[in-house]
Amino acid sequence: MLISKSILYAMSIATCRATKLYVSSYDGNITTINVTERHAFGIQNQNKLDLNPIARNIGCAPSPSWLHLFNDTLFCADEGNTTPNKSILVSFKTFPDGSLLPLANVTTPNGNVNFVIYGTETAPAIALAEYGSSTITTISIKDPTAYTILQTLKLNQTAPGPNPQQSVPRPHQVLIDSSDSFILSPDLGADVIRIFSSDSYAHLTEQKSISVPPGSGPRHAAFYTSEDCDGQTRYLYLVTEISNMLLGYEVVYNNPTLSFNKVYESGTFGSVATPLNAAASEILLTPDNKFLIVSSRNDTHFLNSTNPDPANNTLIASDTLITYSINPCNGSLTLTQMYPAGGSFPRSMSLNGGGDLLAVALQQSSRVVIFRRDLKSGNITEIAGSVAVSGELTDVIWDG
């Protein structure tokens, strides 16, 4: 199966090293940003990254929400905020100058907020989480010039949940399990984690769901595999948007499906009280398989934090990035750091392949901020660079 939000980030002894970011925004644009790290006399300058927008493309309009890069093809899902009866999935060929050439597109049900590439080399496919239409749609991408819909799975729930946004199913993510055998979907509306098996033709069959506490609103999850303690153990970590919980489960494989045993539970801020109106967003596993990073929106936990704009010394209120270390033997988590996100609503995050740089898309601040991380402690150490990007930002990913 095929999935990768992180790309290899090569170390360099030249006078600079460069890569790119792709950023999506509700203004309809995908913006390509060139990221250059300067060196002085062969010594890395730890203070500055130059971020420069070099290209824009409107081909995923009206409301690009999620990006995925596979080889030299960039896939983009449109949420369809202004087209209530439909959304689109688009692919682009990427070029070294940052430009994008449209390859194929397909019209889907409304509300694409997340997707994953899965299947085999002979039957590659994409599964879309369609928050707005309570569906999961699968699409064959075998022909790179013409995509075809395989299935549109209408999701059901027995009764409305306790919160207004839980009146119907709301799939918010699709992800492949760590054995590459199942696709899971946290359903914010139904308070379940849905489980699907896939056949050799990339068709999905829904299995028994895993329930989470009522009113939780599960949003995003990440798989973790440990081989350090008496064999291989797999865990799933889930953040909930409404109740702001961080939940950890041991994953047990019972052919032909799987089950979860809860091994960890806390608020997203650990033992610290969750700020009023906070809304957990993203969860990432670091490339070294040692830490989880969670982003929290609308908490303004840091009232006087450093402004990421180098031209503005005014202190700002900031939401929060939270780092946890993982115990590989029992799946428990330990909070190691809370760090200001550089602004408002850190909706999306992406780690480079080395794990030393974390890019954050601040939805309401309309800014991308890159942070340096210390690989040993797992903690963020400083703002490395930032740039303003128009509109409400929805996703950011690294190119190689």
TrEMBL record:
GO terms for molecular function: 6-phosphogluconolactonase activity. Pfam families: Lactonase. SUPFAM superfamilies: C-terminal (heme d1) domain of cytochrome cd1-nitrite reductase. PANTHER family: 6-PHOSPHOGLUCONOLACTONASE (PTHR30344:SF1), 6-PHOSPHOGLUCONOLACTONASE-RELATED (PTHR30344). Belongs to the cycloisomerase 2 family. This is Putative 6-phosphogluconolactonase.
